[in-house]
Amino acid sequence: MAAVEAVCSRCQGKGHRAADCHLPFFRSCEYCKTAGHTAKECPLLRHCTYCKCEGHTNRNCAKLLAKRAKARASDDSKSETSEASNGQSGVSTASTWASSPPKKQQWKRWTEPQKPRMQALTEDEEKQARKVEKKLREITALEARLAEGETLEDLQQKKVDKKSEFEDCEVMRKLRSGYRRCELPAKSLIEAK
């Protein structure tokens, strides 16, 4: 019988086992060869896409921050000069508001009465409502048979006695109070998925 050569499960090298492997236990960065981070997160490899320098990112790039501050200052100075030329400040008074009243559409939106939203049953409530309606139809059929003089079995009689419970369940109360019915998707559409 031939001897089986040892194969490392970590580096797939032959001649040694995983306990004797030369690879470090923690994966190291391919750029700086230290453990604890990957090359994508290496602090030495970080570079700014704005100034193309290493050691920092766009978020803390001095050149980019200076450019943004300069742009912000120029925007502020433009807004100050436009206010000064109009003779208006940022404060709205009755005279300035009267000279530029809100548009008619805004008034219409503010004063228009809100249309009441029709509340609708959820899918689960719709399913439950359909089940209860089916039971009520069965009870109606049993009552018709009882009116004709037939005798009902014990379970059928118990079902007839529970009619008021079915009519007073929460879903049926919602339907009586005006909740809208929910459209359930057809079973053929559900099965097609």
List the helices and strands and how they pair.
Layout: H1 62-86, H2 94-99, H3 104-111, H4 123-147, H5 154-161, H6 163-167, H7 170-176, H8 187-192
Helix pairs in contact: 4-5
List keywords for this structure.
flat
Kindly describe this structure.
This protein has 193 residues and is mainly alpha-helical. The chain has a domain of 70 residues. It is built from eight helices and no strands. α4 crosses α5. It is flat. The mean pLDDT is 77.
The number of helical segments is: 8
- What oligomeric state best describes the polypeptide chains here? single chain
Backbone CA Rg? 39 Å
Structural class: mainly alpha
Model regions low in confidence, pLDDT < 50 over at least 5 residues: none
pLDDT average, as an integer? 77
| Beta-strand content estimate | under 5%
Number of strands: 0
Note the overall shape: flat
Order of helices and strands: HHHHHHHH
What kind of sheet is the major sheet? none
Helix content: 40-55%
Terminal CA distance:
57 Å
Biased composition (Basic and acidic residues): 72-81
Region (Disordered): 72-130
Domain CCHC-type: 7-23, 28-44, 47-63
GO molecular function: double-stranded DNA binding; RNA binding; zinc ion binding
